[in-house]
From TrEMBL:
Protein name per Swiss-Prot or TrEMBL: Cadherin domain-containing protein
UniProt xrefs under Gene3D superfamilies: Cadherins (2.60.40.60)
Source organism: Phoxinus phoxinus (Eurasian minnow)
Range of residues in the leader sequence: 1-28
Keyword Transmembrane helix belongs to the record: yes
Length: 538
């Protein structure tokens, strides 16, 4: 060390002595200078941008670039120039490019300038998504806040990106935050309501105007946006059991259910019916409640078939008989429909089979054709009458020869093809409204509800003018008629007595023969008066 120091001092002394002749070597240590602090230039600069001006203390200094990273610089006179646009994103160390310039001049000590060039990152890149279109699948009933996908964009400027989706007021999906493009379920999805949603996802490299983020520092700062379309397919999951058809839909909260009222059919006692039983309202049939899955369904009788009278076709649901039923009355079967691949999804329904007693004779009306009458003035609740002259109500009766008495308690009457009348359970016919025609016809039906057998008869009803005295209010009452009969009889007896007396007188002589006619006139007058009194009685 000491040796070195001494040698250096010796050189300096020698130099200074020499400097008496060439003073510049000694005092102007550096023939060129640049600012010591780093020079900053923005990336994406225009070609031939001046980076720094090199100050030279004398003329004719030779400048040589001894270190030129990326061959990006050149010298023009005493200026260091950037040849082309510098790209922050592609430079290996954009924050610190070291450029060295050597300054030479004959007779002067050459020196090397170190220029640190700092390339500033600016927003010159567009963010981009890996794909322009994405397809996501989500099961219906996925819980709210579940992520269905994270779709991020990249930006070479490695800045914060701001995301948004459209439609902005989407009820079903939302972004986790504006910085994390995690697409979340916002509302429980129902395949029946919605099968597909199209979303547009935006990634912007400057804050979104709608958000209350600070405005960009320079209003003129550029902003780039990337766009991707997202198709979300909602998948029908197996969340519903089979539904027996027909059924009535009801909703209970989010759940939809479909209620069937069951099926009904009939067979004859001690008769085995061939083929599938005809049921009401239709054959046993269930369909998957998950419309688009439409899983295969199989059927089974799970209860009520203890005597093995019935069997059900596993695939079609057709119910048929294995042997006759030997007890009358309803047999109630419980039928199960379950999905073949997922037996946990099932439904049950009731199938009631009425076993009917054998009937040899259907009900039969006493006549095939009937006639009835109504007054033109009749209205609702008035009865159809049996004949023109009396006010006796018309009545029908159907007999069933299967019964010794002819009376089958299971017979029900019906009116067909007429809106004017209805029939009571006792066979009386009631008007439902005023009649506006001269006559009308209809069919009466007697149904044995225990066998389903029926008989019919025709009824024609004639509309007759209302006779004042014959209308129900003014007609004779039975009591009036009895009184009249009694009075007439009394008069007759009186007349006979008078006539007998006169005859006996005539037989004795004949002088009062004219009086006979007098008496008969008197008696006739008397009868007439009595009759009038009876008629006018209230
Ligand atoms: C270069 O020289 C000029 C005067 O000639 C002076 O104003 C400037 O500050 C100098 N620059 C440096 C970096 O020394
Ligand atoms: C130094 O620069 C001069 C002109 O400025 C040039 O002629 C010379 O070839 C350069 N020398 C080297 C070694 O690059
Ligand atoms: C100038 O610098 C170069 C290297 O760039 C060197 O080769 C040369 O000897 C120096 N001196 C002169 C006087 O050119
Ligand atoms: C980068 O430079 C190119 C061409 O010079 C220009 O079109 C573009 O707008 C510049 N980008 C930015 C962000 O300044
Ligand atoms: C979903 O997330 C939001 C915000 O994090 C929260 O307010 C809400 O309660 C969550 N909903 C459910 C069902 O977890
Ligand atoms: C029952 O028997 C009657 C005849 O007595 C027949 O008309 C009817 O079709 C039978 N019903 C069934 C379901 O076989
Ligand atoms: C089920 O019964 C119906 C008639 O009721 C018939 O058309 C159909 O072919 C039957 N299906 C099977 C598989 O037996
Ligand atoms: C007819 O009368 C019966 C009772 O006898 C009643 O059940 C039925 O509803 C009535 N029909 C009409 C159409 O009024």
């Amino acid at each position: 060390m000491d040796m070195q120091f001494k040698r250096k001092s010796t050189t300096t002394i020698f130099g200074c002595v020499f400097a008496l002749f060439l003073p510049k070597i000694c005092f102007a240590e550096k023939i060129c200078t640049v600012p010591s602090e780093p020079v900053t230039i923005k990336e994406n600069n225009t070609d031939d941008t001046v980076v720094v001006h090199i100050n030279t203390t004398t003329k004719d200094v030779t400048l040589n670039l001894t270190e030129n990273p990326g061959n990006a610089f050149y010298l023009r006179g005493s200026e260091l120039i950037a040849k082309k646009g510098l790209d922050f994103e592609t430079l290996s160390s954009p924050e610190e490019l070291t450029v060295q310039v050597r300054c030479n001049k004959t007779g002067f000590r050459s020196n090397t300038l170190i220029v640190i060039v700092r390339v500033e990152n600016i927003n010159d890149n567009t963010p981009s998504f890996g794909q322009s279109e994405y397809t996501l699948n989500v099961n219906e009933l996925t819980p709210v806040n579940t992520s269905i996908g994270l779709i991020e964009a990249i930006d070479d400027d490695s800045e914060v990106l701001y995301y948004s989706i459209e439609p902005t007021l989407n009820r079903y999906f939302r972004l986790e935050t504006m910085y994390t493009p995690n697409i979340l379920v916002n509302k429980v999805l129902d395949y029946d309501v919605l099968q597909q949603v199209k979303l547009i996802l935006y990634a912007q490299d400057t804050p979104l105007p709608s958000q209350h983020a600070p405005m960009p520092s320079q209003p003129s700062e550029r902003s780039f946006t990337a766009t991707a379309t997202i198709t979300v397919n909602i998948k029908d999951i197996d969340n519903r059991p089979p539904w027996f058809q027909p059924c009535t839909r009801v909703t209970s909260g989010n759940a939809k259910i479909c209620l069937s009222l069951g099926y009904r059919g009939r067979v004859n006692l001690t008769e085995k019916q061939d083929g599938a039983l005809q049921l009401q309202p239709g054959p046993v049939y269930a369909r998957d409640g998950d419309k688009s899955r439409n899983e295969e369904i199989s059927y089974k009788i799970v209860r009520g078939n203890e005597d093995n009278i019935f069997q059900i076709d596993e695939n079609s649901g057709n119910i048929s008989m294995l042997k006759p039923a030997d007890i009358a009355g309803p047999i109630s079967l419980l039928v199960l429909a379950s999905q073949v691949l997922n037996r946990d999804q099932f439904a049950t329904t009731s199938v009631i089979i009425d076993v009917m007693k054998k009937s040899r004779n259907p009900p039969r009306f006493e006549k095939e054709r009937y006639e009835g009458y109504v007054y033109i003035s009749s209205g609702p609740e008035n009865m159809v009458l049996r004949d023109r002259t009396t006010n006796r109500p018309f009545r029908v009766r159907a007999r069933d020869e299967d019964f010794a008495s002819g009376i089958n308690p299971d017979i029900r009457y019906e009116v067909q093809y007429s809106s004017y009348v209805n029939i009571t359970t006792d066979g009386f016919i009631l008007l439902k409204k005023a009649v506006r025609t001269d006559s009308f016809a209809l069919q009466l039906r007697a149904v044995d509800v225990s066998t389903g057998e029926s008989g019919t008869a025709a009824l024609s009803v004639l509309v007759i003018p209302s006779a004042g005295v014959q209308s129900p209010d003014e007609s004779f009452r039975a009591g009036d008629m009895a009184l009249l009969g009694f009075v007439m009889a009394a008069l007759l007896v009186l007349c006979l007595i008078v006539i007998g007396y006169l005859i006996s007188r005539v037989k004795k002589g004949n002088p009062d023969a004219f009086k006979l006619s007098e008496v008969s006139i008197f008696s006739s007058k008397l009868m007439f008066r009595v009759m009038l009194e009876v008629y006018s009685a209230p």
